[in-house]
Specification:
By secondary structure, this protein is of the alpha+beta class. The protein has two domains: 7-96, Phosphorylase Kinase, domain 1 (2-Layer Sandwich); 104-309, Aminoglycoside 3'-phosphotransferase, Chain: A, domain 2 (Alpha-Beta Complex), CATH 3.90.1200. The protein has eleven helices and ten strands. The strands form three sheets. The protein has a five-stranded antiparallel beta sheet. A three-stranded antiparallel beta sheet has the order 6-8-9, with no helix packed on it. The chain has a two-stranded antiparallel ribbon with strand order 7-10. A hairpin with a 2-residue loop joins β4 (85-87) and β5 (90-96). The longest helix has 22 residues, at 265-286. The protein is globular. InterPro entries: Kinase-like_dom_sf.
Amino acid sequence: MHGETTALDVLSLPDLVESHLGSRPRTELWRWSHLSTVLALELADRRRVVAKIRPFTDRLTGCCRTHRLMWLAGLPCAEPLGDPVRVGSRIVTMETLVDDGTAIDVAPRSSARSAAELARFVSTAPSVTEAGSLGPPPPWVWWNHDQGATWPFPDDQAEDLNQHPGPDWLDDAATRVRERLFAHDLGAPVVGHCDWEAQNIIWKGGTLHAVHDWDSIVALPEIVVAGAAAAVHAVVGGRPGEATIPHTSQFLHAYQEARQLPWTAADHQAGWAAGLWVHCFNAKKATRRSDGAAAVARLAGHIEERLRLAGA
């Protein structure tokens, strides 16, 4: 999925919303665009809703189904409103606008708390079979992709990262991480969330307030889900960074405890490897941005320690 949603989609949205929800938008509260266009709207009947427009892929069907099942199960999240709507090559979903108010925590108050809520998420989630199609996963967790070479295609940059070698330490680290994960028995997949950043997991008063970004639902081995989340759970949108090494360790141990999993030392290494793949992929993309040098340098500063923890 490359490029942003077209203006034509947004201009035709009021008719679609009225047809789908029985009331026409009267005020646009805010708008955000990247891979998707997301609009918060107040309708004529005073309901406040969010509409999201993005290119259709098969995996979004499973993502939408999981969102509804999780809302029905009582997980804090926006209520999906009706079924997804296909409009040509696009898919449109609508949900209630979560009233975040003003007392929102910038990030989870502890890594252990964030890990416990991810454990709750996975415990509440439907089975992989019930969720339906969730593949392929987004590239930042698709270490075992089928595209050849080291790096999968980004979903937000129209270029092949493999055509831009270097820095050598980064390409080498990604190769070692992939080899480590391929060599480990990662176990059966579970349904989880692969973008467990603070910007997507909203906290209020130290309590989980709402899970967002339901397009990031995946069916992956549990150690990969936990490892990826451990790597990014403290990241806030617009602020480059990653969870520190101590916070990553705290997250992995707290997740294992919350789920009562018999993870071995080798399993923990695989969790570190899964998280390091996320860091490596993000850093590789950063090499292609004019403002990416700081992100690459930050990972370079502790890459050897993270590789050691990953057993790679």
